[in-house]
Amino acid sequence: MASTVPAPDPKASQFDVSAAVLPGIHTHVEANGYRSGRFETLVTVGEIFADGMTIVVTLLFAYGIYRWLAVGQRITYSLGRVTGAACLFALLVIGLLDRAGAYQSGNSLLRVRETERILRASIQASLFAFALSYFTKYLLSRGVLAIAFVAVPLLLVIEKQLIYGLVRMLHSRGYGVRKVIIYGAGMIGQRLFSALVRSPKLGLDPVAFVDDDPKLEDSRIFESSYRRRRYAPVLRGPLSAKLIRKCKASLVIVGISSIDRNKFLEIASEASAAGAAVSFVPYQLDPSMFWVDYADIDGLLVASFKPPSQQIHRAPIKRAFDFTVSLLLLILTAPLFLVLAVIIRISSPGPAIFVQERVGLRGKLFRLYKFRTMYSGAECYDYSPKDVRDPRITRIGRYLRRTSLDEIPQILNVLKGDMSLVGPRPEMPFIVSQYQALHRLRLTVTPGITGLWQLSADRACLIHENIEYDLYYIRNQCFFMDLAILLHTVVFAAKGI
After folding, report:
1. Which residue range is the domain that position 50 belongs to?
2. Where are the strands (E) in 395-438, listed by range?
3. In a domain, 2, yes or no
4. What are phi and psi of 210, to 5 degrees?
5. How distant, in Å, are the alpha carbons of 312, 329, 413, 414, 423 from that of 360?
6. Cα(382)–Cα(370) distance, rounded to whole angstroms?
7. Residue 331 in domain
8. Is residue 329 domain-shared with residue 254, that is, in the same domain?
9. Which has the closest alpha carbon to 363: 312, 302, 300, 427?
10. 28 located within any domain
C-alpha cells in the first residue's frame, strides 16, 4: 500500500497556502522568492502603521464630534490625554487583530474573514474601554467611546480595502509576485487555481499546470467562475528542475491529495534543485475530512473528527440577533414593502407575494416568501432564470432582482424562525433530492437571506454548484462573521443600486 504525504500543519489556515515539506528534503527560495518575503514584511509593517493611524485619527475626530454635539456639561480633555488614550486604544485593537491572525499571510474567501477580525477586535477593544472608563474614570468619556465604537470598525474596513487595492496594483506591476506551478490538473488542482486567482493579495501567480496525463497536454484550464478570465496551460510531466526554471516559478503546489510518498519526494527534490519551495493540498474536500481538525501534541499530529452540527451555544444568540434585527428591518421597510406590493399588483396580474416551498434546517420544509418578479403562470418549481432578459420576468421584476429587493418579504421567514439573516440559501425540494453527501452539509445550519455565495462573482451560477462558499461559512460561522457578511451585503446592495 502506497504511503501518502503527512497531515497538514494544524496552525495553517484551511485557505492559506503554507509550505509542507517532507523530512529530509531541504527547500529554499531563490532571489525572487526572497524579494516576495521582504515585500510581504513591508506590507505587514505598513498595514500595522495604517491601522494605528486610522484608529488614532478616528478617536481624535470622535472627540471633536462629541465636543460639537455635547449638550449641557462639556467635558474637556487636553490634546495630550486624548492622543495618549487613542494610542492605547490603537495598541489594544492592533494586539487583538494580531492575536486573531490579521497580519499573517493569507487571504480568506471574499475577504470576509478579514472584516470579521476587524469587527471582533474593534468591538472587544471598545467594550474593554467602556468598562475601564466606567470603573476607573480613566481614558475618555463613554460618549467619545460610543462614537468610536461605530466609526473605528467601519473606517478600518475601508482602510483595509484601500490597502488591498494598493497591494493588488503593486502585484500587477510585478512587485512581490511569486510564480506558481500546480502539479496535477484534476479537480483539486483546478480548485486550487481558482482559489489563487481569487486571492490576489497572496501575490501567488499560477502560471502553469503540470500533469502526466497525455490527454491534457497543451490544453488550457480556466478559473471556475462565470467570468473565466484567467487560464493556465497544462504542460506534460514529469516535473523537472529545468521545467520549473523555464517557468521562473519559486513555488510548486501539489494538487493531488493521494500522491505516493516516493512521487512527492521526487517532486520536492526537483523543486529543491530549482530553488523552489513545495506545498501540497492535504486532502480532498469530502464530508468526512472537511470536519477534521489537527492538534500538535509534543510534535505528534493528532486528527480529531468533529461532526457537522449547529453550535448549540451560539444558537440562542444568533436567534435573538436575527429576531431583533429582522423586527427592526420590518418596521423600517414597511412603507417600502407596501409601495412595492402595490406596484407589482398594478404592473402585472397576480399576487404581490410569491410563496414557494423550500428545504430548511435538517430537511424541514417551509414556505418561503418573495416579491413576485415573474408573470403569473410561469413554472413554480424550476431553476431560477440566469438572464435578466428572460421573457418570464416582469419589468419591475428585473429591477427587484438586480437590487435584491425581491428578498424583503423573507424578513417574515426570519421572524418565524424558518430562516436566519445569514446562512446558505434554501433550495427547492427537487434540487435537494439530488444532493450528494457533501451538499447535504448545507442542511446542518439554518438557511439565510444572504451569505457568501450572494457576494461572489459566481452568484450567476446555481447555488449547489458553488458548494465551497457554504462549506466555508458552515465551518467558520460565528457571530462576528455574520456581522461581516451583513456589512458586505449592504455594500454589495448599494453598488447594485
Report:
1. 38-172
2. 420-422
3. no
4. -125, 125
5. 17, 22, 11, 12, 11
6. 15
7. yes
8. no
9. 427
10. no
